[in-house]
Amino acid sequence: MVDNGMHSPNSLPRLEYLRWLLAVPLIALLLALLVWLGGVNQSLFLWINGYDWPAAEPVWSAITLLGDALTLVILLLFFVGRRADFIWSVMVALVVVSVVLHSGKSLFAVSRPPGVLDAEQLRTIGFVAYNGSFPSGHTTAAFAFAGAICLLRFPHWLKWTALALALLAGFSRMVVGIHWPLDVLVGAATGWLGMALSIWLASLMPWGQGLWAQRVITVLLLLASGYALWGFDGGYPAARWVYLVLPLLALAVALPRLPRLFGVSR
Known about the structure:
mainly alpha
């Protein structure tokens, strides 16, 4: 039988669950409040964006792709056949968080840095857009994925690694010149809380952890990996290698589990 990973969203000890649930969004929203009240949103962006960071543009391009939805979908292949609860929660979040994210972008209609600042005032790397800044989609996605790992039962080293990578992804959105600090901070809280809601909703629909649902999801994940390998660069050509290396690694991990998942005898 395939391990369907049937876990409750409260599978962590209650106190640990509440700590993870509340700490990240509270810190992010507190920092956002300080940035807003202090009126330093633009000046803080200009400092972060204009600082001479040691990493080169291809490195920042790769880091910022950690928040791309396709990257996170491909990462789910590492958990195929092991953690159906995690996979199903993330799939639910793709819908829930997307609705919240795009509603926010439409409601607030904040211009991005390239739509406000003169070209000589900022550095842009890769993808450039002018509207739909608030909140940051990449940051929201990265923190939603990290939230799923931190709010479900996973090793602590993986929780802290996921959180650190989400922080890097959010920070990179300012370095590449496409988001304000408030976009990033509110995006972090949005993704985290959106994932908490999605985990709860996923627990109300346990059929998503069933064998046939997981088979369908796995096929979709495989198609997404193939799409990435076909030529997708996420708007950052300097990091095109990410969509060559990551899908191949994910497929190498997932393929040995597929015969058991799909009931193919060997």
